[in-house]
Fold this sequence. Notes:
Layout: E1 64-65, H1 100-103, H2 155-158, H3 204-210, H4 223-231, H5 237-251, E2 253-254, H6 256-261, H7 269-275, E3 277-278, H8 280-293, E4 298-305, E5 320-327, E6 330-334, H9 336-340, E7 341-344, E8 351-353, H10 358-361, H11 364-367, E9 371-373, H12 389-393, E10 403-404, H13 406-410, E11 433-438, E12 453-457, E13 465-467, E14 469-470, E15 476-481, E16 490-498, E17 501-502, H14 508-514, E18 520-528
Parallel strand pairs: 2-3
Antiparallel strand pairs: 1-7, 4-5, 4-9, 5-6, 7-8, 10-18, 11-15, 12-13, 12-16, 14-15, 16-17, 16-18
Helix pairs in contact: 3-5, 4-8, 5-8, 7-8
The structure holds zinc ion (ZN).
Residues 197, 199-200, 442, 444 line the site of zinc ion.
Amino acid sequence: MLQLNQVGRNALTRPAPPPVPPKRVPPPLPTRKTSGSSLASCYSSSSGSDRGSITSVGSNYSGRSLPPVYTGKESLPVQFAEKSKAYDMPKKNPPSLPTRSKTAPVLPPRGPPLPSRTNTSPAQNQERPQPIPRRLPPPPSISVPPLPNRPKLPVGSHTEPVISRSPPPVPRSTRPPPVPLSTRPALSSRLSPTMPCLVCYDFSGPDKHASLPQFERIRVESLQQLAVGLTAPFSDTLDRARVIFTWLHYNVSYDVHGFLHGKMASQDPEGVLQSGTAVCAGYAGLFNKLATHAGLESKVVSGHGKGYGFNSGEPYKMNHAWNAIKMDWGWHLIDCCWGSGSINGPPNPGYNKRLAPEHFINPPNVFGRSHFPEDSSWQCREDGRVIDWEEYMTPDQKEAEPLRYSSFREEFGFSEKTVQPPVNNIDTFAGRRTAFSLGLPCEHMSRKEEWVLFLSIGEFSDKNWVLMNSDGRGRYHAEVEMPNQRGLKVGLYRATTWKGNDAKGLLAKEWQAEVGKVAWGWSPIIIWGADK
Ligand SMILES: [Zn+2]
């Protein structure tokens, strides 16, 4: 029997809540495993399926809201007032890369003046980030995109890992001979390193270190000492930033009471350390202080955030603060406040500590959907664009997505971004050859093929089943001549039982040869064209 729990389509996968209708607090999403309504009548012919519960895949906010944004009552830290020292690049070869400002692309011309803005933060003008194009190279080394008309890099230059996660030393005997100076490319022709893939980056080391009892807030003697203790084991800027981000999650709580009653304690870093509570400005300020003590180059960025109580029609107001950190590849944006937990809505507003890593790993283009900096140069977008307030406030006109069941993510770890076709309404594909595919969140992840997945085009019957081809690493694909018929449903299923046993490990060719002749069961993963 299929338990239809919660309709997962339209579940947005954003790091921050989508623009909500004009009401103060979004209603809690329905909890899982409640409704008893059933889809089973569609698929009742055989041993059938079992646990096809539908989930709100991608929704990380069930019943909760992001912490409130700044109200204007508390004072934000002075932006960028502190001239942070440049981070010493740990033991890298070649020793001196050109400065980023010379090699990074120049910002495109600004858009028209932003409406409803009062000023443009003159204090922020000295140092503006440059957009750095991002690529997703396989970890752990980072490739340098080729420059046009550039001499080929000598072999030796390629072998130096850019991310220094303690690679084993290269034995002397296998080292390439030194490259004669005359054949080396000028250092200035090298581009900045590209951004590593943060989707599969392993942060378990910094996350664990941040949770150690010796770093508990009440034991901290000084911010300087804390910063050094937290970051000492890590040479990489990304890890050093992450350990501080995670420490804030463990040790600082959102000041819900203070926020609601307009009585917040000091938001300066020492004050937050004392009280253990903060609003956005306190989180951003304390991160900045610790990062700076740890030798990172960090900024507090302030502007508008689509947090608790967000109303899609509201005018621009500075109500939130977050951080920018200079990484090896350029400026990266993080939100420690939203990354530390969320607020329960009424009637009992309270704080829910929950590490929300998406507010650390999201690339600036995604980050910028819910954060609008006062100074637009801190948008730091990968595409180099500067978006204006209207574009920021315009909700995505997203088409309804196909229905996804809980197994989609919980058992397979599929990413909704990989689902093709991405829309629920597949009428436009009628009579056309159509690709159906899905896979894992990033290209570096893999998963052993363990289940037979197949499509059912239209009515659930053996005539309409199409095997999904697997690449053996967690990605599935099939191309189908769609019937010239509108209102069709297409389901993606997995074989769950086979001849009375669990179907895990069932081979595709075995399924193809014997399906229809033996007892078996299945359960849905995705339905396109549902609810028609
Ligand atoms: Zn990856």
